[in-house]
């Protein structure tokens, strides 16, 4: 049967979240969990931080509204991403995730509200934030040859400089890291993920220039920048920045939250 999708499947933002379960116990497999066990179990399995995170988010998005068109589009996108194409596949997904349809609708709408909250809060700051941290996101492709023997590194450096051997051949033969499998070629990778000493070297050199042997920890390395790929403020980068700003904000919020249990000592 084709998937039935209507406004009732994806209620607008005025719809209330699912009512909390009024049962005083939870049945998981053969185990019955009393209400008084819930908080100790959340604490024991380190789930309280995740619950606190979600409650802080709920508070932040409480005033966010979604149009019917937005919620319908979000539902359709969710169904496509999860390969839900019929009422039967939707029910199977619900069963696997221990949700009912109302809870799924709330989940989809909540995700939409979170994205709208990010846009409303930080979209106007993305360009300035990107410009401040652009070098953080720039990517490079480079050739690397690492050795424990500094004297051998110097000898190989002169061989490459004089054109006696190619960097790739020497890397395959002598490099003592995984880059030996690719002829020394690494990347593209973001500059900030590399060793600080390597970042400094690659940030100021020109593509194609072989750098003199450099000591990095226990290694002596030969490095040649092959290509610099400047970061761009495209749609994926904008979403990444929104996510990073949201997570930074959320971390600050969580640091101020106090959790207290009202269970009796018994």
List keywords for this structure.
single chain; 6 strands; elongated; 4-stranded antiparallel β-sheet; 266 residues; Chitinase A, domain 3; 2 domains
Describe this structure in words.
By secondary structure, the protein is of the alpha+beta class. It folds into two domains: 7-124 and 245-255, no CATH class; 139-229, Roll (Chitinase A, domain 3), CATH 3.10.50.40. The chain contains ten helices and six strands, in the order ββααααααβααβαββα. It has a four-stranded antiparallel β-sheet, with helices on both faces. Strands 1-2 form a two-stranded antiparallel ribbon. α2 crosses α5 and α3 (68-81) packs across α5. The longest helix is centred in the middle third of the chain and has 22 residues, at 101-122. It is elongated and about 75 Å long.
What separation lies between the terminal Cα atoms? 53 Å
From the helix content, strand content and strand pairing, which structural class follows? alpha+beta
In round numbers, the mean pLDDT is: 88
**How many E strands?**
6
- How large, in whole angstroms, is the Cα Rg? 27 Å
List SSEs in N-to-C order.
EEHHHHHHEHHEHEEH
Strand order of the largest sheet: 4-3-6-5
Please tell me the total number of domains: 2
Strand percent estimate: 15-25%
Poorly predicted ranges: 4-23
Range of helix content: 40-55%
**Overall 3D form:** elongated
What is the overall number of helices? Answer: 10
Major pleated sheet? 4 strands, antiparallel
